Amino acid sequence: MSSTSSLITSFIVVTLVFGAVGGYLFVTNPYEPSRVAIVMLEPGRGDLSLMDQMELGLENLSDTVSFSYYWYVVSETNAVSKLQELAGTGGYYDIIVVVGHGLKSALTTVAPQFPDQRFAIIGAEVSGANVVSADFSTEQAAFLAGVLAAHLAAAPNYSKKIGIIGSFEDDTEVTKMVAGFKAGVSAANETYALGVSLLPNDIYLNSYNDTEAARTQTQFMFSVRNASVIFAPVRASIMGVAQAALAVNATWNAGVPASNRRLPLVIGAEGNQDYLGLPDYHLDIGISLIATSVVPHTDYAIATILNATAWDNYPAGQHLKYNLTNDGVSLTSFRYSTQYISTELREIIAYWKALIISLGGLPP
């Protein structure tokens, strides 16, 4: 596209922005993009998972439409007051996007108070003519991760033990993924007689961003509890998990022939975290100890909602559902793990994915 046509496209998008739900508002400055407020829980941006995944969608969207983004980190205790403050600015924000199930209650309270303000929530469902919701069947992708973990843990030289380290036990998305993961482990165990077991007493860090606690608990789970694979939906704390896995790997495999090595393997969640398990993730080469990640495609959701809004098609009151069927949730592509994830194992994962799609949910 020429620079002239790009300028014209940008001009059209930013001048036809919208005030009240469903109506046009012609701005006084045609070169000022529409404003989007994005409200999230701590740790906010740079969480190596949910928010970073969503920002990929914003980056892709920038090729076609123009927005100015305003980022706000809140706690569950001050979320209502912050949303009221943002919505009370008289249409300053074309849309207010709320991210995470933990903010569902706050938006449920505030949205009816401001019927002319557009809202969106990513990761939960809130009813209302001025709210569009997007949520994710992450349990489906986590089930596939459980099938994968069971086979990895049952490989020669491995202990057949699988552990779980999560962020918060009361985080709905985490508990949904953990349940799906355990169901996948169980299904693989029963179907293929793998003889693997889940370690009792899942560990929860009570934080989304505690590198040291994650490192300590991961080291303990590998070295003392003898786990071969750990499922770790811990958001930014994945840095500690990866650090511990790399340290354990150096200890376990020092001087051990490649054919006899046992890798301390991790499965990430809520974003593509695979690269963090590389020996040096800045170089982006090598074998990763993070075999795959369970990904809810918040990037797809935010791009869909904002693109529709920009073109005067705000999906008012709609509930967008993302699952394996529409590729709204997925496992990552094993970019750094094909050395230990065979073609046969990838075919097994594909079989279970097809089964879940055909059933419209997890196997009974």
Write a structural description.
It is a single chain. The protein is of the alpha/beta class and about 375 residues long. The protein folds into two domains: about 35-135 and about 300-320, Rossmann fold (3-Layer(aba) Sandwich), CATH 3.40.50; about 140-295 and about 335-360, 3-Layer(aba) Sandwich (Rossmann fold), CATH 3.40.50. The chain contains ten helices and 15 strands. It has helices spanning about 5-15, 50-60, 80-85, 105-110, 140-155, 170-190, 210-225, 240-250, 300-310, 345-360; strands at about 15-20, 25, 35-40, 65-75, 95-100, 120, 130-135, 160-165, 195-200, 205, 230, 265-270, 290-295, 320, 330. Strands 8, 9, 10, 11, 12, 13 and 15 form a seven-stranded mixed β-sheet that branches. Strands 4-3-5-6-7-14 form a six-stranded parallel β-sheet, with helices on both faces. A two-stranded antiparallel sheet has the order 1-2. The longest helix has 21 residues, at about 170-190. The chain is elongated and about 65 Å long. It starts with a helix and ends in a 5-residue tail after the last helix.
